[in-house]
User: Which sequence fits this backbone?
């Protein structure tokens, strides 16, 4: 679990910066303006980079995109372009992160976004990154390790530092479409 505090009130910025798309909103049906949401309220967003979820952990460029991250790619290196997700730091579960704020629980599901432009028509865009990745591109100052299981367990593959973000590497046969978490190594 990360030690960073979740961003509170960041939903509008997340929608603009990270293509956060509301999937389901479940407020109480009897809610009136000004009511406090019940603990069972859940809001779900699809995000393609985890910087939309956590504060203080992303080094971003002028557009707010993480520059010290591991890019998770939908296609193998055989494709010129691929749908992608940019993930920074220690992520214990590629499925989603959960943030509670004033009685509302926010689920941020990690999905691929269409690269621009993609030669494959954006295949993979909108799909979950967990158990759907074929390759990565190491775009940071840190070494990363991708794991087979959530919680940083099981077989893994190391991706050494490559600040130039110019080398795609296929996941090994064990991790191909079986990726679940990542950790600094």
Assistant:
């Amino acid at each position: 679990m990360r030690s960073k505090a979740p961003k509170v009130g960041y939903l509008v910025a997340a929608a603009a910066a990270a293509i956060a798309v509301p999937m389901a909103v479940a407020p109480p049906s009897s809610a009136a303006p000004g009511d406090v949401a019940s603990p069972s309220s859940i809001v779900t967003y699809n995000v393609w980079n985890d910087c939309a979820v956590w504060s203080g952990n992303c080094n971003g460029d002028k557009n707010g995109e993480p520059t010290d991250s591991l890019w998770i790619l939908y296609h193998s290196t055989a494709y010129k372009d691929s749908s992608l997700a940019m993930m920074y730091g220690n992520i214990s579960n590629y499925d989603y992160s959960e943030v509670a704020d004033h009685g509302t629980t926010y689920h941020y599901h990690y999905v691929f976004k269409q690269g621009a432009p993609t030669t494959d028509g954006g295949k993979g865009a909108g799909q979950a990154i967990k158990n759907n990745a074929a390759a990565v591109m190491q775009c940071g100052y840190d070494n990363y390790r991708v794991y087979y299981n959530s919680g940083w367990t099981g077989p893994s593959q190391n991706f050494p530092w490559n600040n130039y973000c110019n080398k795609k590497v296929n996941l090994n046969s064990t991790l191909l479409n079986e990726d679940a978490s990542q950790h600094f190594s």
About this structure: The helical segments are 11-17.
